[in-house]
Amino acid sequence: MSLLSSYVDKTVSVVTNDGRILIGILKGFDQSCNVILESTVERIFGTDVAMQEVAVGLYVLRGDDIAILGELDAEKESETDFQQIQAAPLRPVVH
């Protein structure tokens, strides 16, 4: 839990168990690793079209639904042209 506290008020990337990719500012979390993201966007990738970003705003995510959470590297973000990236969507995590 102390690892998550170092990410509060920073932009993070979250990959969910069902394959969604969410980018937002971590505003809080609890003992179950449920998280609150502010100014959240969902990145949607496809093999036929460029990456799309859909604004979802304030987002509460259950800790059980999180596969990966990490701080976003702002420098690499600004250097990457996401409109040129085409990729198959992530498949859901199977337990």
Automatic annotation (TrEMBL):
Q: List where in the cell it is found.
A: Nucleus
Q: Which GO terms describe its biological process?
A: mRNA splicing, via spliceosome
Subunit info here reads:
LSm subunits form a heteromer with a doughnut shape.
- Identification of the protein by name: U6 snRNA-associated Sm-like protein LSm8
> Mind telling me which PANTHER family this protein's record contains?
LSM1, U6 SNRNA-ASSOCIATED SM-LIKE PROTEIN LSM8
SUPFAM superfamilies referenced in this protein's UniProt entry, alphabetically: Sm-like ribonucleoproteins
Q: What this chain does, per the record?
A: Plays role in pre-mRNA splicing as component of the U4/U6-U5 tri-snRNP complex that is involved in spliceosome assembly, and as component of the precatalytic spliceosome (spliceosome B complex). The heptameric LSM2-8 complex binds specifically to the 3'-terminal U-tract of U6 snRNA.
Spell out the Pfam families in the cross-references: LSM
Q: What family, per the record?
A: Belongs to the snRNP Sm proteins family.
Query: Which SMART domains does the UniProt entry name for this protein?
Result: Sm
Q: Which UniProt keywords apply?
A: mRNA processing, mRNA splicing, Nucleus, Ribonucleoprotein, RNA-binding, Spliceosome
Mainly resides where?
nucleus
Task: Tell me the ranges covered by the Sm domain, including all copies.
Answer: 1-75
Q: Which GO terms describe its molecular function?
A: mRNA binding
Organism ancestry: Eukaryota, Rhodophyta, Bangiophyceae, Galdieriales, Galdieriaceae
Which cellular components does GO assign to this protein?
Answer: precatalytic spliceosome; U4/U6 x U5 tri-snRNP complex; U6 snRNP
The record lists the organism as Galdieria sulphuraria (Red alga)
Quote the InterPro entries the UniProt record gives: Lsm8 (IPR034103), LSM_dom_sf (IPR010920), PTHR15588 (IPR044642), Sm (IPR047575), Sm_dom_euk/arc (IPR001163)
PROSITE patterns found in the cross-reference section: SM (PS52002)
